[in-house]
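Fill in residues.
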C-alpha cells in the first residue's frame, strides 16, 4: 500500500508552455529506431478497444499505483461501449497516440456538465511506461488543446498524484499551473485516501 505522506513538489512557473506543434517536430530517434513523427494522434475508434484495455492494464500493474482502478479497468466490451458513447457525445473526446499499430497513449476530455462551469473540461492522460519522456504525452496535450478550442473550452484542468513528479513536470512544461491540493481526495479500492494536486491551463 502506498504511503499517504505528502511529497515535496515545486510549483510551475507561469507562462512556461513549450509544447507547441513546432517543438514536437524535432527528429529525435528513440530506442527501437522510431521518431515522434511516426506517432499518430487521432480520435479513438471502436476498434481501439483492445489496445486501450491493454494499455490501462499495463499502467494499472505498475507498483506506483497510477490508476485508481487498481486493476479493475473496463473490459474490452465495456471499452467499446465507452468509445461509442464518447463518439456520440459532443462534449467529450478520447484521443489516442498510435505508434506502428500499437496504442501507446490516451487522453480523455469531458466538459463540466454544470452550466456555470461549462467552459471547463477535465482531462485524463495515460502513456505506456516504455514510451514516457519521449514527447507522446506532449503530443496528446497539444491535440487536447486543439479540440478544446474548437469546442469553445476556455480552461483545461486535471488531477495528479503529488508523488507523480514526472507528470507534474510534463504539465508544467505544457503551461499548466497549480491551483491547489485536494487532501484525501481519492479513495483507493483498499480504502486508502490519497491527495491530489489540481492543475489547470487557461486557453483564453
Amino acid at each position: 500500500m502506498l504511503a499517504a505522506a505528502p511529497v515535496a513538489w515545486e510549483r510551475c512557473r507561469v507562462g512556461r508552455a513549450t509544447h507547441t506543434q513546432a517543438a514536437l517536430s524535432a527528429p529525435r530517434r528513440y530506442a527501437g529506431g522510431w521518431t515522434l513523427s511516426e506517432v499518430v494522434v487521432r480520435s479513438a475508434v471502436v476498434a481501439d478497444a483492445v489496445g486501450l484495455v491493454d494499455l490501462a492494464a499495463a499502467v494499472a500493474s505498475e507498483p506506483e499505483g497510477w490508476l485508481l482502478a487498481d486493476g479493475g479497468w473496463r473490459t474490452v466490451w465495456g471499452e467499446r461501449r465507452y468509445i461509442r458513447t464518447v463518439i456520440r457525445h459532443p462534449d467529450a473526446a478520447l484521443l489516442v497516440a498510435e505508434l506502428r499499430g500499437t496504442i501507446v497513449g490516451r487522453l480523455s476530455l469531458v466538459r463540466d456538465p454544470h452550466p456555470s462551469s461549462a467552459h471547463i473540461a477535465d482531462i485524463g492522460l495515460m502513456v505506456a511506461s516504455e514510451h514516457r519522456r519521449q514527447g507522446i504525452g506532449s503530443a496528446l496535450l497539444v491535440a487536447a488543446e486543439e479540440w478544446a478550442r474548437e469546442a469553445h473550452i476556455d480552461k483545461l484542468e486535471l488531477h495528479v498524484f503529488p508523488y507523480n513528479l514526472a507528470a507534474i513536470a510534463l504539465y508544467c512544461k505544457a503551461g499548466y499551473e497549480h491551483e491547489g491540493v485536494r487532501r484525501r481526495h481519492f479513495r483507493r479500492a483498499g480504502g486508502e485516501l490519497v491527495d491530489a494536486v489540481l492543475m489547470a491551463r487557461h486557453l483564453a
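Helices lie at 49-60, 76-88, 136-150, 165-173.
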